[in-house]
Design goal:
The complex is a heterodimer of chains A (177) and B (590). Chain A is α+β, with helices and mostly antiparallel strands and 177 residues long. Chain A has 5 helices and 9 strands; from the N terminus they run βαββαββαββαββα. Chain B has a 6-stranded parallel β-sheet with strand order 3-2-4-5-7-6, sandwiched between helices. In chain B, strands 11-10-9-12-13-14 form a 6-stranded parallel β-sheet, sandwiched between helices. In chain B, strands 16-15-17-18-20-19 form a 6-stranded parallel β-sheet, with helices on both faces. The chains are: A alpha+beta (177), B alpha/beta (590).
């Protein structure tokens, strides 16, 4: 994945049926690329928040933001600058771990500040979180042992400092048109 | 507040009444049955279409003609899927329409029930917004919001899908006082700094052009546009969707730009140093190859939809806002600065003179021989002469549409209704019926092609049944003329599936079958006689079959994807250019 065109968008949406379809459909229809998408509820049950990582140049990202804004259920979009935000992704990897190599693998787990979340005779499942780059590095180091399966959550991200995406938009939630 | 227990269906009708709807276009069926009962007791009139596509195009024609939201009501499944074309058409041309569709009962959703379709899913990409109503209490809010979304900001198509059980359920009626849409806040006023920058840029230009688009029509901004153009003496081109927003006979009018536009309008954009773009979207049919479009021009871009700004062409001065409001701001700022003695009126006398001369040198060509076949251009001019500027003219898509747009001297907004962005063949007949429903005292004339006409002429029954007296003129050349033109010019005249025999069907017999007067004109003499007779009929629909020269082609033209620099005005010019290109290719090989 080339980072040159990597942009992280944090999107606050009304928690309404079909909102994810509307967003995914807009990307498909206009031929934009999504690298990853993570979605979940927020502290406000009326709202969900998506983190979208898109692979586009700046001009296209501007169009993506404008097109997203046209969706009635989209309330606010922030583009998060990687230097001014914290990004995390969760990864679970099930890797072959017979007794003779298990020690080596556990050392990797330690170095990457990951955790073992399941152990069996032949395999262990590792839970790691961090930046996409860190997870890819761990994955590369585990590959020689034989990865049985792997799942990633998609990136989630928050801006650094005290500011929040809902600053200035709380009134809007009650505002009448 | 009036608290009453009523059914969901009654709530739908009350909501429409609250919103001032006078007429809806629709077609009943299973899931929407509960709604057709209280409709009998409502002052809202229902026009029974003959196909759901006809109903939605009629709603769009109504909205085009009146500026009010057009409403369409149909049942679930196939009826709702039949709306897809009309919704996409309205959405592309920013026409405010609301479709209300029946859905299978809530419990049956997802079971592949009879006449079930995922209508909100299917129509998501072709609507501005849509909603599946999940409780009877939500009906009034959903419909109020649908109208609000359809007619504000950049207008468009909105669909409300209501399951049958929810139409039948009881609720305590109350009409919501407000629309609560936290994610929907269209910008109305332009940024004042941008407005000032725009006026400054206009003052510095020497070859300015106002590129006027359909957004001005949607915003009812004709007066503001006239003020701006006259105040600053800037020539105006009007796109296909904006024909009539600025009168063609005005000295600053240059006509229509684009693939089949007027020569001077196309050249004006190409030679301009400043495009004052108002409610237009740099559509490919206007720009041709974007890289070579208006290469010397800076761009002021006014649009209510921020996503249009910078989408196709970078704007030097972007202004987001309602066209009527923003053009009003531009006029106000310019006036104030003129009063202060600032030089904001561009020094463009030489430019206007240049364009005037160009207009004189490049008229639209049509060689009508008095004894020869009727040229389609002659027919369209004669139709306009018969019904005049009071008429509202509605076209389908193809050659007849381009000629009508080119040749009629448009003089007022909403006088011209057509399917622009989506290019929907078959639009004219139902859209004209919808327009007539909105403008009962205005002559409404559908100028249709023979191909288009055969896609939707079943709707004549709806017109006859509801006394919506429309004049249907078929420019009958026995071909899918535009496709034939392209096959002739770019596929060595290998005509493939474009022949529609001129007398299949016999259109006069079709008129007879619908019980309306039918006429046929095959010669110039017959044309004037027939139009003279037909124009006297005001108490019935009329169908006129004008047999025209099938060989005629639309010029000027810019081959698709070509640069606007490649505009050709006649077939001879195209052939000469093709020969030159072939010679150049042979040279480079040798």
């Amino acid at each position: 994945m080339s980072d040159a065109g990597r942009h992280t968008l944090s999107v606050l949406v009304e928690n309404k049926p079909g909102v994810l379809t509307r967003i995914a459909g807009m990307f498909a229809r206009r031929a934009y690329n999504i690298h990853s998408l993570a979605v979940g509820p927020t502290d406000n049950p009326q709202l969900s928040r998506l983190t979208l990582v898109v692979g586009s140049d700046a001009v296209q990202v501007e169009q993506i933001v404008k097109q997203l804004n046209k969706l009635v259920h989209v309330i606010k979009i922030l583009e998060l600058d990687p230097t001014e935000s914290v990004e995390r992704e969760l990864q679970m990897v099930k890797v072959n771990a017979p007794a003779e190599v298990r020690g080596q693998i556990l050392q990797l787990v330690d170095v990457f500040r990951a955790k073992v979340c399941d152990v069996d005779h032949d395999a262990i499942t590792i839970e790691a979180s961090g930046s996409p780059e860190k997870l890819e590095a761990l994955q590369a180091l585990l590959e020689p042992y034989g990865i049985r399966e792997l799942v990633r959550s998609g990136t989630i991200s928050l801006g650094r400092g005290a500011k929040s995406i809902t600053d200035g938009s709380k009134n809007r939630m009650q505002r009448v048109v | 507040m009036d608290k009453q227990t009523i059914t969901g269906a009654q709530a739908v009708m009350r909501s429409l009444e609250q919103l001032g709807v006078d007429v809806v276009f629709g077609y009943p069926g299973g899931a929407i049955l509960p709604l057709y009962d209280p409709m009998l007791d409502s002052p809202v009139q229902h026009v029974l279409a003959r196909h759901e596509q006809g109903a939605i195009h009629a709603a769009s024609g109504y909205a085009h003609a009146t500026g009010r939201v057009g409403v369409c009501i149909v049942t679930s499944g196939p009826a709702a899927t039949n709306l897809v074309t009309g919704l996409a058409d309205a959405q592309m041309d920013s026409i405010p329409v609301v479709a209300i569709t029946g859905q299978v009962s809530s419990a049956a959703i997802g079971t592949d029930a009879f006449q079930e379709a995922d209508v909100t899913g299917i129509t998501m990409p072709v609507t501005k917004h849509n909603e599946l109503v999940t409780s009877p209490e939500r009906i009034a809010g959903a419909i109020k919001e649908a109208f609000h979304i359809a007619e504000t900001g950049r207008p468009g198509a909105v669909l409300v899908d209501i399951p049958k059980d929810i139409l039948a359920a009881l609720l305590d009626w109350s009409w919501p006082q407000h629309v609560d849409l936290p994610g929907y806040r269209p910008t109305v006023r332009g940024h004042s700094r941008m407005v000032k920058q725009a006026i400054a840029l206009i003052g510095e230009s020497t070859r300015p052009v106002i590129y006027a688009g359909g957004g001005l029509m949607r915003a009812n901004a004709a007066d503001e546009l006239m003020e701006l153009a006259e105040l600053l003496q800037v020539p105006v081109v009007t796109t296909l969707m904006a024909r009539g927003i600025f009168p063609d006979e005005h000295e600053l009018a240059l006509g229509m730009p684009g693939m089949h536009g007027h020569y001077t309008a196309v050249r004006a954009l190409q030679e301009s140093d400043l495009l004052i773009t108002l409610g237009a979207r740099f559509d490919d049919r206007v720009t041709g190859d974007l890289e070579h479009f208006a290469p010397h021009a800076k761009v002021i871009h006014v649009d209510v939809d921020p996503a249009e700004i910078g989408k196709n062409r970078v704007a030097d001065v972007p202004i987001v806002g309602d066209a009527k409001v923003v053009v009003g701001q531009l006029v106000k700022d310019a006036r104030e600065r003129i009063e202060r003695g600032d030089a904001v009126v561009p020094d463009a006398a030489a430019w206007r003179q240049h364009l005037k001369e160009m207009q004189a040198e490049h008229p639209l060509l049509c060689d009508q021989e008095p004894d020869g076949p009727i040229k389609p251009q002659t027919a369209i001019r004669a139709i306009y002469d018969a019904w005049g500027p009071e008429g509202t003219y509605v076209a389908g898509v193809g050659q007849h549409q381009m000629w009508t747009s080119q040749l009629i001297p448009w003089s007022r907004p909403r006088q011209w209704i057509n399917s622009g962005g989506l290019g929907t063949m078959g639009y004219a007949v139902p859209a004209a019926i919808g327009a007539k429903a909105g403008l009962p005292d205005t002559p409404v004339i559908a100028i249709d092609g023979d191909g288009c006409f055969q896609m939707t002429f079943q709707e004549i029954a709806a017109a006859v049944q509801h006394d919506l007296n429309v004049v249907f003129c078929v420019i009958n050349n026995g071909f899918l003329g535009m496709v034939r033109q392209w096959q002739h010019l770019f596929y060595d005249d290998r005509l493939s599936s474009v022949h529609l025999p001129q007398d299949l069907p016999d259109l006069v017999k079709i008129a007879d079958a619908y019980g309306i007067p039918g006429f046929r004109a095959t010669t110039m003499d017959e044309l004037s006689k027939v139009l003279g007779e037909a124009a006297l009929i005001t108490d019935s629909c009329v169908l006129i079959d004008v047999r025209v020269d099938p060989q005629e082609m639309v010029f000027p033209m810019i081959p698709a994807g070509g640069s606007n620099e490649m505009m050709i005005e006649s077939v001879d010019e195209l052939r000469a250019r093709q020969a030159e290109d072939a010679a150049a290719a042979a040279d480079s090989e040798a």
